[in-house]
Amino acid sequence: MMNISKRLNLSGLAICAAFIAAPALAAECDVTIEADDAMRFNPAHIEVPKTCETFTIQLKHTGRLPKLAMGHNWVLVKQADLNGVARTAMAAGESLDFIDPTDTRVIAHTALIGAGESASVTFPVRKLQAGVRYSFLCTFTGHSPIMQGTLTLTR
């Protein structure tokens, strides 16, 4: 039979282990993405845990060129809608951050930013569906064919 002090020590160890493991089990519900003058997103793939209520994208422009020359935004769409959204966004122009505000295919987007600037967007994860392929892109004129990434909803 185990004495009381040994049981208390084992209980204390179990509680400590739970606190140490808790951060590892917590879902990461945000990510920082860098965009540069070479028209790249880093990272180019994002995993969004289904357990998150909301997810936040922090976009940082790490390049040196101003918004007028090399502006970037981050736009989330279903992969099947990528080309259509890119065309509509270019027509919207710079005054609307290259986003058509009436385009319901856009799930989430940041503002257009230039060198040294950042922008963020938070969206409800319930907008995403399991098994659907998602892409993100920059809709600044001419960037969308190169500046793309993928987003996956995970368990």
Provide an overview of this structure.
By secondary structure, the chain is of the alpha+beta class. The longest helix has 22 residues, at about 5-25. Residues about 10-25 have low confidence and may be disordered. The protein is globular, with a radius of gyration of 21 Å. It has a single domain (about 30-155), classed as Cupredoxins -  blue copper proteins (Immunoglobulin-like, Sandwich). The chain is built from 3 helices and 9 strands. It starts with a helix and ends with a strand. It has helices spanning about 5-25, 65-70, 80-90, and strands at about 30-35, 40, 45-50, 55-60, 75-80, 110, 120-125, 135, 150-155. β1 and β2 (about 40) form a beta hairpin. Helix content is about 25%, strand content about 30%.
What labels would you give this structure?
five-stranded mixed sheet, four-stranded mixed sheet, Immunoglobulin-like, 155 residues
Q: In terms of topology, how is this protein built?
A:
Blueprint: H1 4-25, E1 30-35, E2 41-42, E3 45-49, E4 54-61, H2 67-70, E5 75-78, H3 82-92, E6 108-109, E7 118-124, E8 134-137, E9 148-154
